[in-house]
Amino acid sequence: MGPEASLHLRRPTLLLSAVSVLLLLSACFCSSTSSAARTNAGVLEFSEEPQDTVVPPGSSAALHCVLKPSAAYPSSFITWRGPDGSVLNFIGDSLRRQLGNGTLFFSSVPIGMSTLLGTYQCLVHLDGVGTIASRKANLSIAFGPHVSQQPQSQTVHVGQIAHLVCGVEANPPASVVWLKNDQVLTLDDTRMMQLPSGSLDISDVEYWDAGMYRCNATSLNRHALSEKAKLTVQQDQFAHPTAPRFVAKPASAVVIEGSTVTLGCAAIGNPTPWVTWLKDGVNIDFADLDSRFLLIGTGSLQISNVQVRDAGAYQCRAENKEDSLDAMANLDVQVPPNFKKRPQDSFAEEKEDLELSCDVEGHPEPRVVWLKNGEEIKQNEYMQVLNGNNLRILGLMSLDAGIFQCVASNPAGEVQAAARLTVLRPGMNKLSHNQHHPKENIIPKRAPLGESAFTDVPTEPQEVMAPFTNARFITLKWKEPEHSSTPVLAYSVYYKLKDSDRERVANTSRPDISISGLTPTRTYVFRVAAINSQGVGKLSDPIEASTLAEAHVPGIPKSLKVYATSSSSIASEWQPPEGGEAPVSYYKMFYMQGDSSVEHHVVTYNTSFEVRDLKKYSEYSVWVVAFSPNHEPGASTEQVIARTLGDIPDEAPSNVTLEAASSTSIVVRWEPPPEHTQNGLINGYKIRYKRKGRNKGGETVSTAGNRRMYVITELDRDAEYQVRMWALNANGTGPPTDWLSVSTLDNDLDESKVPDAPINLRVRPAADSVHVTWTPAPGKNVMVRGYTIGWGPGIPDVFSQVVEGKQRYYHIQNLKPNSEYVISVRAYNNMGDGQPVYESVRTREEPILEVATPLLPPVGLEAVVLTAQSVVVYWTDSQLPKNQEVTDGRHYVVRYTSYHHSSNPRYKYTNTTQLNTVIVDLKPNTQYEFTVKVVKAHRESPWSMVVYNTTQEASPATAPRDLTVVSSEGSITNVNLNWQPPKTPNGQVVGYIITYTIDHNKPEKDWAMEDISGDRMTTSIKNLNPDTTYYFRIQARNKMGYGPFSNIVTFKTPYTTGGYSHGSVHNHGGPGGLGQTNIMLLGVAVGLVALLLVSSVAIFVCCRKKQEESPERNKKIVQKGKPNIKPPDLWIHHDQMELKALEQKNGQSSSSSQDPLDQDSPPSSDPPQITRTNTSSIDKRTYVPSYLSQGGGSNSSRLSDDERSSTARRSKPVSVHVDATLLHMDIQRDSASSVSSNDPRPYPRTQYTVSRAHVTLDPGTSTVASSTTISENPYSLQGGYDSVDRPHAHISGAHASNYSALAAGSGNGDTNTLGKRMQGHPLKSFSVPAPPPQAGTGIRQSSPYKNKLPAATQLPPGMSSLKRGSDAGRVSNCTTPLLTPSWGENEMPNETTRLQPSLSTEELNQEMANLEGLMKDLDAITAKEFEC
Prior knowledge:
Helix content is 7%, strand content 35%. The strands form 23 sheets. Strands 11, 14, 15, 18, 19 and 20 form a 6-stranded mixed sheet that branches. Strands 22, 25, 26, 29, 30 and 33 form a 6-stranded mixed sheet that branches.
């Protein structure tokens, strides 16, 4: 039965007797559970606590401890905790014992017994309740006085001041007495004062003050004398003025609120400086009768009953006409902790969560510690300190009952408050707890859950499960109980850690709940019970669920401290994280200046860092994030704000103006330096002025930092003065302004009469104010010192305001709306007020203020992505009309940030008056969150619901990082490339492009390129040239495009000494170095060229001799118009020489107009037979030049009739089929029919570099690839030997003979030209010439000494013919054509086809005749009569 029912039943007894009334009130009082009742019943407070004690050596001491008596706690006993933290047992302790009343008594505290000194704490044990601890008291031993600051000898002049210092250290504090000439000094109260610090001030020094001074400090009957200081007084005055000089400066101090503090200051100079004090740059007013500030001695400041608001920067300023000097000191006021809210006695059931409140204030911020039964509570997952002060207990258990204390301490003091916690068994009524039985801490246990006396409680919930788990919470759901007599009102979920006894409960009205605040990677046990009007039902079967592992990131760094180390640097210190799922690899310290949105960060591996090159006297926000070895960031610390130290001002005061106020005064006006150059609080200005033309002299005045004007007086009439200014702050004096000039007036303005009335009075009304302007009277000779503005409702001058004479306007405020006012303005001077001028005005009506209805957040917020960097956000304002037009001055604030997991996100904001806005400068491929609120005047709505969207992808903004090139193991021509993805990919990278070259000046299109898939970050580049420098770069691409190229990485392949081997080297578009094989080939080529020239000369001589027998030999062609023709240089023009074609075997047609070498023969199963005739070596039919004779044999090709005929040299080349086996450069070693790689056969080339190519044949067929035709221009060869790609021809032995026979035979197939001759080398005169085509249509002139032959003339067998090409240019008359093989750009000759022996014996005679003609031609060359 509750107390209300009890009161209701006892009400009839109120009429029976007064005793019954008292009993009823007593019963009601006992049954009440209000906090006041509990407090009265059992107060947990000390009436006397131990205090800090200083004991003289060898003296006794006592520490008292008394708990306020309470009937609720009748039985208690006291113990003491010693300096080492353990409880004292006093066994064998002869110096300490506990008295019967609990006092701790020290019989003696001798010197050297350090174990007795320290902190002691009283513990009061309440039977059946708990333990309460007192404050800690410090026991220390007294020590005698010691003079730490000695007085200094000094010399002063009569009328100046003297300041003698005496600093004493003693515990307890010592008293100080001054001695003069070893006699106690009698202080002259009018001139002498002893400061609280012990120092002596003497003002207006007289000559008899001279002498020897010393101070005597006394404490605990002990004395300490200082050294002697001599005071010398000179009676003569200073001959020259001197600037102020401090003999005592104020020292910074830390005081307790309510105490008295003295800041000493003394200065000397000539004239004697006067001292003023400023606080935070503002002069202190000592004239206020209620002021707690007092100027004592020669300039010291005493503050009594110090308040928190007195803390700040104090400035002692000493100044005379020569200069001014400042000394700074900071005053810090500490406030002992004070409870704003104490913890209260509490009752709670098991499994509940409970929070004990404790709110304290003080300065510095008090540190709060919670005690349970006198022992400090260590935080864990069940006992946590929230908001720095409150204690939260999760899942109460019976063992949690006891006395809890909130202890707050700071350097100024310590306070504690206690509360009792009673834990009840579930289901018992808290109101029924009997206060008369405090020992019964726990109510008797009720029936277990589900075993209620009522049979209609719900059955257990069905199918309890945990469908979703996270690292910090688990979601449960279940089905309703199978049976419940009444509707289920709620559910209780009981949960605990597996194998733990501490169980917690959470309630919900729905059949699901999310249990938060769990620990990652732990297993929890859950049970659910339903509750209806009959009680709590049966519990479900327990289920287990485990939380997931949290991201493997470090925890939050602890105890971040940030402090300034200079005017441009700050330092930070922190402790490593205590928790976290990953170790700390390094830290990033972020910092940001003031309200700037630009973040900076530094990386450090230590737990401290100093940031330099910051702005002076600027605030910076600092926070630290720990990173794992995988570069995963943890949560950041809270931001800590620090300000860099100040410095002297960087600039002088600005906008300094001078104005002559009269014939003897000047008005100086100025503005402070720009804020960013002040480097601290401007606490004053110094003004120096002098008469122009005087290099010496001048005077200095100072003013407070809040002044903007100063009047310099006592100047000369009609004189020019120069003025300059300095700005002052706590760090010193800034730079001065330039000298400014102004002249005083020659005559003062007339002040013998009052000024005239102002003119042009104008008023401009508002609802509650009027703006007034005017113009001075036209007269210029009357002094105007100021103006008086008056106003009143209906009548003037009810209120008035005086302004200075330079002002021309005034704003009257705090008027009533829609009211008539009369405004007056009059000028005044020392003679009085002048005539006023009046103006009437009516204030405007007050605007109708709309009802301040709450602003609702916008709804329907949507974010639509426009581009990779912009999103349009739009919403609906439910408080606007249907047309959604903003007409009431409201605007919207859109807040957005990238998706984050941080507890301190970096939000950005944008304002708009529309219902949509476009947000730009976003990051591509980044998810952002957006929210919006309404702002109207000073009101604003809550933030709307958050929407998310992801910006589009964009091409990568940065190049891949860390591109490295290394040689591949086992190969000097292969390299491995490694890289990292771009820092800003702006999307998923789908591929990488690697380009490389040996000439980085080439255009991009000429670089070699490799395409790598996006999931790879390494690749290999093969078949590079050895000993060659390559340039590599890389770019990334995604589906939106290509990113920028990385920086070029240079790599040089290793050097090799061997020749080229198959598959080892591919030239990639640039010249390479010559290996040993190339050098050998070059030497062979030089020899071949020499042999070629000798053979050509011999053949030419033979041909010439034969031609001399021809009837046309005497015919000459004389070219006109070109006298003095330069003879040909056979070495330079040897590319125009031709080797005369020899006759092929009988039966070949000599009248064919098609060159059989330009035709492809159809494949044949039986290769044509090649007929040979072995003749003498002098027989031309078997003559083969030495440079063509290597590798002859059966693989030589046949020549057609045209080839056997003598031809004139033509500019068009001829394609000659050559033996594939001779063209093969690098023979495969695994082919049985291949030629050895050591075959010494050289290339048919000159001594100079020449382009070459390979013939590539398909080994799977016996056909011969179509011959390639070289460019018609023999001078078009360009590029060197290594300037073309050289793929190798692979020809098996089975097909080599077929190819040779096909090359020699003629067919009727179509000619297929594979390519043009490659462009020539710049040294084209030294390149191997291409043979002219054999299919000319006419006979060209070979030599001016040869007869012409008709184009259709058929020569008899064995005769050489000269063919003339009508389209040919002029060339040298080398009659014997040089047979030179032709090749395409993918072919390389190794040997030239062997010449076929001639079938005619008469041709030798003809050639001998030709040789004779050749000799004549040589004579003509010598005589410069031959033209080539």
